[in-house]
From TrEMBL, chain B:
Its EC number is 1.2.99.2. It comes from the Bacteria. Residues 18-127 form the Aldehyde oxidase/xanthine dehydrogenase a/b hammerhead domain. The keyword Chloroplast does not apply. This is Carbon monoxide dehydrogenase large chain. Pfam families: Ald_Xan_dh_C, MoCoBD_1, MoCoBD_2.
């Protein structure tokens, strides 16, 4: 449980970091909060030959509302979100979820963008990014692209990010007051990765009918997934306990669960049903 | 002033809280790092182990290098025990994933791990025997030629009238239960540092261990070295819970390296090694059959006990420790007219089992206390009344397995617990909650805990090495402080504080003047260690005896100096008193040592005494009550209330006793709900990190209410009984009963621990 040998770089600017990435590509890895990368190296499951530590680059720890979106820089730590970073449903949802990410010491180091780059299937931020439709701004030496969350997650720990790219910013829509966001997750101990989580967002029209609905599930498949049929079932009517229950049941059946010795598939479905219903109910209760 | 019985803060704690404790890893500066290569296969033949190009100074040690080194082979002379030999490093076969098969030495742990990765292991995998069912399957592979059919212990007790009891019964209650495998998970994993002393040629092994003297004896015998040339030191030890009693292969290898290469060699176990390769426990299946009369009287019990004890037999307790504890102690605190049982230990290709806090009794209590609730339900009786009817009330009481239960408070503790739990109020809450679709449950566990037993108890098991007694050397320095040297080796139990309190009262001294010295074979008398809830009773009894002898010496000297009769002299407030006249103990100490011409005729030139104590044993008792809420949709169990009525006789320090209960209950909660070592069918461990093996965090442990009762034991010198394991023994049963009570509308019955949310959901789903 000691890291294999590696070289260490501490660039002072984003340009320098991108140059290092361009040069070292495959064998280099960005070090952000280190809360996933370092344990993985200690288990020798990751063996980057070089670490490119971005923590000394000034100005990357921002998190600001701008043009209707919340813009999150690569060094904004989890702990930052424990209290709403912006008024409205988006900030509140992030705060609801933040307390479920690991433990306080880990939250003071781990970063929002690091979670998205790492793409653990049970990451709260990944699930929220998919549910709300985050945009991910990716830089490489001499290039830039914007990847929507829907195109970001490819499989377990695998994203659209290329080896020479830096995730330079994640942005989330700042939802208006007509949105109701819900969050629920199940884990066996406080701070553990969730066995299942649901993030829900409903837009209610003036009549109280559901005009838009998004439901994302985390920790239940190789990537966070959208429960589209479940969300669609809620459209056009006022939510009722029965309709929420029915949507939860649809969500529970609409995916291929990951299975392991501790979590059989049918149990994963039980949890999705319960978490989806609780997230939806919770979002409407307040 | 009475020091004993006071809630004195532990003298051990300030240094630990300030981070100034000295654990093995803190002492390892300058030593070369050792990394063990561990078997990746559960079963297989070693074809070759090829070293890469080693950097200068690095070493690779394999079994082939250990010419003349013996195998670890503890003995048991009863119960059809098959002695199996565990090599320090194997040459031919591997027997479990994680078994050490070679050692790499390098300048740093990082480098050692790099080299270890590059070693080429050629092992031909073979079919693995992993579970109890695998081991018993006809035609299953045999682990050890010495143990055909993989049965390494097979003990039986048959009472001829048992069958008659069943024939007479109004009701027979029968069921099986399963206990998942656990790891004791001490905060500090294992660690060893072996250092060669060039001047004397001696080796000092500093190790995170519970039994330093035994470790020294065992290692010296394996390596064929003079025991006097080996010093074993247990520095601060970050918990053991039984896991650190055993003589593991890693330690003799470290001593071998230090002797061979005349240097210092250090191994600090990492968490993955600890989880897969230290020692496991509690992997058991029990089948119970009990006969009851219609009024709830227990007439007879039959038990079939199967324990998966892994690949080898732990030294010195042997793999018999789990099944034989269950065999002997199944009757618990109940009046049981007749009992028949069989207990087997089965060898499998898994990490060897060793004692873990409670040793089988958490499983036994789970069995007995589920039995009481099931029988009450079957007979339509109140479970409290059923227990009260069957609990032993007259003492001493001899159990069907020949154990003598000393004075205890089984019924009284139950009554206190039932009263404090306010069951009628709970039932009302439960009703109201059920109407809202919420499931509350309350569960009880009544049990006794055999503690403080000396050599007779261990000898009855037929052990080749019989632990049990403790020896204490006590001496007063010329300046009047007292040094108490104990063979026992505390590692978190607060013995330094509690023994000082005991000695302080016998000597009329302030405890701050008393130093308890332990954990160093050069500085303490031969003794056994801290395990089996024995420290306060046995080391305590020996300390009291030794202090009394020293007190008698001081009184005689004082009588001479005060010109009084020895019988009229009392010791208090740091002085010896005869009526109004007094002399400080410091003055007596100075005179004995430095003006011996005046006093040496009274018993010698110093103030040193020795005493030993070897009691037969005593039973503490307790009643645990758990109140839980089960989330029927997720299977999650939340503990709403946890109450312990504990009777451990006279309490030397109630603060320490509370801490023992808290820690034990936390481990019991882990056992009930969270922790389980899992293997794949091929014998690969699936729980190699703390993300998969789940010890509770503070968030999962509720406030624990404790009510103490103090039924003094007539069997122990101090009146104290042990209580170190009780928390872990009672909590799983209480929680299992509470969950079963909560889910009674579904007819769910907990028969497997841990009761994980996935298991609970499956039970609810299948019941519906
Ligand atoms: C005990 C424990 C419990 C945890 N529980 C949870 C939990 O419940 N929920 C949860 O979501 N997480 C959990 N985590 C993970 C934690 O949130 C991590 O902080 C997070 O996954 C990664 O963020 P980081 O900044 O630490 O990234 P790092 O560990 O530094 O990096 C992770 C990966 O992302 C890459 N990377 C990081 N930043 C960038 C970037 N800007 N551009 C390109 N690549 C980048 C790195 O190269 C690396 O491959 C837990 C961790 C631990 C140790």
């Amino acid at each position: 449980m000691k890291c294999p040998p590696f070289d260490y770089h501490a660039p002072r600017s984003q340009a320098e970091a991108l140059a290092l990435l361009a040069r070292h590509g495959e064998e280099g890895k960005i070090l952000a909060g280190g809360q996933s990368l370092v344990p993985t190296m200690a288990f020798r499951l990751a063996r980057p030959a070089r670490l490119i530590d971005i923590n000394r680059i000034a100005g990357l720890d921002y998190c600001r509302a701008e043009g209707g979106r919340l813009r999150i820089g690569p060094l904004a730590r989890h702990a930052r979100f424990e209290r709403p970073v912006a008024p409205g449903p988006t900030g509140r949802l992030l705060a609801r979820a933040a307390e479920h990410i690991a433990h306080a010491p880990i939250r003071t180091r781990g970063t929002f963008c690091g979670s998205l780059a790492h793409a653990d299937p049970a990451s709260e931020w990944c699930c929220i990014a998919l549910a709300l439709g985050a945009d991910l701004r990716v830089l490489r030496e001499g290039g830039e692209r914007l990847v929507p969350a829907a195109g970001w997650f490819q499989s377990v720990f695998t994203t659209a990010l290329a080896p020479d790219e830096l995730l330079a910013e994640a942005s989330l829509p700042l939802l208006g007051p007509d949105w109701r966001c819900g969050f629920a997750e199940f884990n066996r101990r406080a701070g553990d990765f969730a066995l299942a989580m649901a993030v829900t967002a409903l837009r209610l029209d003036a009549a109280g009918h559901v005009a838009e609905a998004r439901i994302a599930l985390g920790g239940v498949a190789g990537t966070p997934i959208l429960a589209e049929a479940a969300a669609a079932s809620l459209l056009g009517a006022s939510p009722t306990p029965d309709s929420l229950r029915a949507a939860a049941a649809i969500a529970a059946e609409g995916f291929e669960p990951t299975e392991d010795a501790q979590v059989p598939a049918d149990y994963r479905r039980d949890l999705v049903r319960a978490m989806t219903r609780r997230a939806l109910e919770g979002s409407l209760a307040a | 002033m009475n020091w004993t019985g006071r809630r004195l803060p532990r003298t051990e704690d300030p240094a630990l809280l300030r981070g100034e404790g000295a654990f093995t890893a803190d002492l390892a500066a300058g030593a070369r790092a050792v990394r063990f290569l561990r078997s990746p296969f559960a079963a297989g033949r070693i074809l070759s182990i090829a070293a890469p190009d080693l950097p200068p100074g690095a070493l690779l040690v394999t079994g082939a290098d250990l010419e003349g080194v013996g195998a670890i082979r503890p003995e048991l002379f009863r119960f059809n025990y098959r002695a199996i030999a565990q090599p320090v490093l194997p040459r031919e076969r591997v027997h479990f994933v994680g078994q050490p098969i070679a050692a790499v030495v390098a300048a740093t742990p990082e480098e050692a791990e790099d080299i270890a990765e590059a070693v080429l292991l050629d092992i031909e995998p073979e079919e693995a025997v992993v579970t109890i069912e695998d081991a018993l399957r006809p035609g299953a592979p045999t682990l050890h030629a010495e143990a055909p059919g993989n049965v390494v212990v097979d003990g039986t007790i048959r009472h001829p009238d048992c069958e008659a009891a069943f024939a007479r019964a109004d009701r027979i209650v029968e069921f099986s239960l399963r206990s998942g495998r656990q790891n004791a998970t001490p905060l500090e994993a294992r660690a060893g540092l072996a250092a060669h002393d060039r001047a004397t040629g001696r080796i000092r092994l500093t190790a995170s261990c519970q039994m330093p003297h035994m470790l020294r004896t065992g290692i010296a015998a394996l390596l064929g070295m003079a025991e006097a040339d080996l010093q074993v030191v247990a520095p601060d030890v970050g918990g053991g819970f039984g896991q650190k009693m055993a003589l593991f292969p890693e330690y003799p290898l470290l001593v071998w390296l230090a002797r061979r290469h005349r240097g210092s060699f250090c191994w600090i176990e990492d968490r993955n090694e600890n989880l897969i390769a230290s020692a496991h426990s509690r992997d058991q299946i029990h089948h119970l059959r009990a006969a009851f009369a219609a009024d709830g009287t227990l007439l007879g019990l039959e038990a079939d006990i199967l324990a998966n004890t892994g690949a080898f037999s732990c030294y010195p307790t042997t793999c018999g420790v789990e099944p034989l504890m269950a065999l002997a102690e199944y009757p618990g605190p109940y009046r049981l007219p007749t009992y028949s049982a069989r207990a087997r230990a089965l060898a499998t290709h898994t990490c060897p089992a060793a004692p873990y806090r409670g040793v089988s009794r958490p499983v036994v209590t789970f069995g007995l206390e589920r039995l009481m609730d099931r029988a009450a339900a079957a007979l339509g009786l109140d479970p409290v009344a059923l227990r009260r009817r069957n609990l032993v009330t007259e003492f001493p009481h001899v159990t069907p397995t020949g154990l003598t239960l000393d004075q205890a408070s089984y019924v009284e503790a139950l009554d206190r617990a039932v009263e404090a739990a306010d069951i009628p109020a709970f039932r009302a809450r439960q009703e109201a909650a059920r109407r809202e679709g919420r499931y509350l449950g309350l569960g009880l566990a009544v049990f006794n805990e055999r503690t403080g037993y000396g050599t007779p108890a261990f000898a009855a098991r037929g052990m080749g090495i019989v632990p049990g007694y403790e020896v204490v050397d006590i001496a007063m320095t010329p300046a009047g402080e007292v040094e108490v040297r104990i063979g026992a080796s505390p590692h978190g139990q607060g013995l330094r504080t509690a023994l000082a309190q005991l000695a302080a009262d016998r000597l009329g001294l302030d405890p701050s003047r008393i130093r308890v010295i332990h954990g160093d074979t050069d500085r303490t008398p031969y003794g056994w260690g801290s395990f089996a809830s024995r420290g306060a009773v046995i080391a305590g009894g020996a300390t009291q005896l030794a202090a009394d002898k020293l007190a008698a010496r001081l009184r005689r000297a004082a009588a001479r100096l005060l010109q009084a009769e020895p019988d009229s002299v009392t010791l208090r407030d740091g002085a010896a008193w005869a009526g109004e006249a007094s002399i400080p103990l410091t003055e007596i100490a100075r005179r004995v040592h430095q003006r011996s011409e005046q006093l040496s005729d009274l018993g010698g030139f110093n103030l040193a005494e020795t005493a030993s104590y070897d009691p037969g044993g005593t039973f503490s008792n307790a009643c645990h009550v758990a109140e839980v809420e089960v989330d029927a949709e997720t299977g999650h169990v939340r503990i709403l209330r946890f109450l312990v009525v504990e009777d451990a006789g006279r309490l030397l320090n109630p603060l320490i006793a509370d801490g023992q209960v808290h820690g034990g209950v936390a481990q019991g909660i882990a056992n009930a709900l969270l922790e389980e070592v899992l293997y794949a069918p091929d014998g690969n461990p699936l729980t190699g990190s703390l993300a998969d093996y789940l010890p509770p965090s503070a968030a999962e442990i509720p406030h624990i209410e404790i009510i103490h009762m103090e039924t003094e034991s007539p069997e122990t010198l101090t009146g104290a009984k042990g209580l170190g394991e009780g928390g872990a023994i009672g909590a799983p049963a209480a929680i299992a009963n509470a969950i079963s009570d909560a889910l009674s509308p579904f007819g769910v019955d907990i028969a497997e621990l841990p009761a994980t949310p996935a298991r609970i959901r499956a039970l609810i789903r299948n019941a519906r």
